[in-house]
Design a protein that fits this description.
Strand content: 15-25%
Largest sheet: 3 strands, parallel
Distance between the termini: 7 Å
Strand order of the largest sheet: 1-2-3
């Protein structure tokens, strides 16, 4: 994309928009347009069972009615702006991370994850213990369920200055944990798709 500033609104079309969606869209649109930038509408419809075509059509109609138009994306932009159509790209990104030794299979069930871990300090999210990262090749070969794929995060603290909250520090291992890139049912996780797409779309 050729403009210096690219903004995006990337909702999951799993139903009608709510006020939080509209507020996020308005902020993204104002931020982008105030800098003369290009606005992208990307539909994050990874969960194809919940994200139905009629919802994405309604979402676009609602945005147009509100005057929150976009320069590229949505149904006019073709498959590149629908995450459900980009699985080959996500698979390539996953393969790249696997080749670097940053990904491992996880066989834990949801019940096991919730039983074994304390919640995240701020939002009650369960932090994965990294248990499956320690499995031997023989242990992995003996598993009967399809694995999810997790990113191995370093035991490192990252500090940023948030424009609203100020200085914030998070330790990737203790506050985030090794997170999912692909679920055991084969669906790619938001954490992989959003980074790949934001990078590709500027």
């Amino acid at each position: 994309m050729s403009t210096a500033v690219t903004g995006r609104f990337a909702p999951s079309p799993s139903g009608r928009m709510h006020l939080g969606n509209l507020f996020a869209s308005l902020l993204a649109w104002l931020s982008c347009k105030s800098k003369g930038g290009q606005m992208v509408l990307r539909l994050e419809d990874l969960d194809v069972q919940r994200c139905l075509p009629q919802y994405s059509m309604q979402l676009e109609a609602d945005l147009r009615w509100l005057g929150l138009t976009w320069d590229v994306g949505g149904h006019d932009g073709g498959d590149d702006y629908f995450q459900s159509k980009r699985t080959a790209i996500y698979q390539q990104a996953l393969a790249t991370l696997e080749a670097q030794g940053l990904v491992y299979p996880c066989y834990c069930t949801r019940a096991e994850l919730h039983a074994a871990s304390a919640p995240h300090r701020s939002d009650g999210q369960v932090i994965y213990s990294g248990r499956c990262a320690q499995l031997s090749h023989q242990d992995r070969a003996s598993q009967t369920r399809a694995p999810a794929m997790r990113l191995r995060v370093p035991d490192q603290s990252i500090t940023v200055t948030d424009g609203n909250l100020g200085l914030y520090t998070e330790n990737l291992t203790h506050d985030c944990g090794d997170f999912l890139l692909r679920r055991s049912d084969g669906l790619f996780a938001y954490q992989l798709a959003v980074v790949v797409d934001d990078g590709a779309m500027g």
